[in-house]
Amino acid sequence: MAMAVAIALAVATLIDNVAFAHGNVTPQPIDASELKQIGKDWLSENPYRGDPKAIAIGASGYNQNCARCHGLEVISGGIAPDLRYLETGKTGDEWFLERIRHGKKNAEGTTIMPAFEGIFSQEAMWAIRAYLESKHEE
Ligand code: HEC
């Protein structure tokens, strides 16, 4: 009997750990307070393009929150698009903001890319975009 309980507990712990590894990953906060603050309205173009401080903040934010799917240093292992090839400039900015704010669900309604609106500040989002653009490849 004690054995059965021990096994049940071990299995429950295992299931918990697996669930944690796959979903429910707590976003890591990104402090972008050192950057020029933007305000409430959503911009359609990255105000920090090429800014070294934004790129540094974005690099850390990206590697803690996006790399597990999109790959360390923006080199995708194939489970999510390789963001080095995201279009540069304003067109890429708009697409980037759409995805990071709203995420993406598949046809069955399962989240395949989490939404980050309400989690990261707009400043933090554009800092990540500045980092991504610094890694751009054709
Ligand atoms: C749980 C995995 C996961 C995480 C975490 C994740 N993404 Fe994604 N992302 C995806 C997937 C999958 C797609 C492809 C969605 C589709 O099919 O349109 C995607 C798409 C994108 C796209 C559009 C790419 C394109 O070529 O259309 C951008 C931009 C993007 N993600 C940025 C980010 C950023 C920035 C972060 C971190 C803040 C992040 N993602 C975190 C899985 C993830």
Question: What does the model show?
Answer:
The protein is mainly α and 138 residues long. It has helices at 2-22, 52-65, 67-70, 89-102, 122-134, and strands at 104-105, 111-113. The chain starts with a helix and ends with a helix. The chain has a two-stranded antiparallel sheet. Helix 4 crosses helix 5. It has five helices and two strands, in the order H-H-H-H-E-E-H. The structure holds heme C (HEC). Residues 65-66, 68-70, 80-81, 83, 86, 96, 99-100, 104, 112-114, 116, 128 line the site of heme C (HEC). The site of heme C (HEC) has 18 residues, from helix 3, helix 4 and strand 2.
- Helical content stands at 40-55%
Per DSSP, the total helix count is 5
Spatial extent as radius of gyration: 18 Å
> In CATH's first tier, which class applies?
Mainly Alpha
Ligands, ions, cofactors? heme C
Strand arrangement in the largest pleated sheet: 1-2
Order of helices and strands: HHHHEEH
Label the structural class: mainly alpha
Q: What is the third-level CATH name, the topology?
A: Cytochrome Bc1 Complex, Chain D, domain 2
CATH architecture: Orthogonal Bundle
Main beta-sheet strand count, sense and barrel state: 2 strands, antiparallel
Calculate the terminal CA-CA distance, rounded to whole Å: 63 Å
Mean of residue pLDDT? 88
Instruction: Find the count of extended strands (DSSP E, 2+ residues).
Output: 2
Low-confidence stretches: 11-22
Broad shape: globular
Features:
single chain; Cytochrome Bc1 Complex, Chain D, domain 2; 138 residues; mainly alpha; two-stranded antiparallel ribbon
